[in-house]
Amino acid sequence: MSELKEQIKQLIISSLDLEDMTTADIQDDDALFVDGLGLDSIDALELGLAIKKQFDVKIDANSEQTKAHFASVNSLAKFIEQARS
Amino acid sequence: MKFVVEELAIWIKPEQRQIKESNWFDSSVLNLSWVPAMQRRRMTSFIKMALFSAHQVSTQGNYVNLPSVFSSRHGDFHKTSNLLVDVVNDQPLSPTGFGLSVHNAASGLFGIIQGNTSATNAIAAGAESFIYALVDGFVRLADNDQQHMLIVHTDETLPDIYAQYADEQQIAHSIGLIIRAPQKGEPHFSLNKVFNSGVGESDLPMSIQCAKALHERSNTLLVHNTLEHDWQLTYHA
Questions:
Q1: Chain segment B189-230, per-residue pLDDT in tens
Q2: What class does CATH assign to A2-84?
């Protein structure tokens, strides 16, 4: 799981061009959007695409659950684990 | 058409050695420290060039909420080209790449970052893109009773897979200027389309020919390999 979280953090940094950040700057339970990391709606789309590509999981763009999955690295990791099993 | 150039900034990418070092352009590192980091991270070198030039001239003097024209022959073609490669390979498109590949992306970002709410146009007119940005600026000065117009022209070198179609020197450059209508008796430039000038051809982009002549306040015939006509830029002292 911690390896998966590290992969997710790396993906966030590379797919969203967060050049000045390292994975150590992102806490597992940090809010990714608005407050916390300050990502916006275009980032959400970009990150969704990157996760779909790298982990081969399906993401429903219109579901309320998706919003919850994208709240933090923790919730993303849980979502990807479930989707893959 | 007659106009006065109040501000002029010409930037040419340092690696472009085909243009000899000279004092009519700037090749310093693009400084965009005025752009918030979270917005800057998505910018390609094309957008950075355009915003750099726009900022350089619009922060001189006391210009407020300048109306603008952004021109480019090819736009952010590296970004577009990457998207096209994804289409060919049946890959999903990057939402950021898609959103910022439109021709008015640089002008839109400039408006958002500067809080500029004035009208803006984005122009592509082949080899004459910069000329038609000047024409558009002039028309809007004459028609809308604008005091000043901000004009920004930017071009990247063509992506490698399109290099075979190049019909002029590939020079990454950006030009920013502010024009206004001349007052009576004031020194100004005029720009006119001319036919059958009989003068030789040039493979230097017309935008660079024109910017250099504006800087030097020289009378220059702007010519291009692909055009039947030329443009005469004249300085009336």
A1: 999 999 977 777 788 999 999 999 999 999 999 999 888 899
A2: mainly alpha
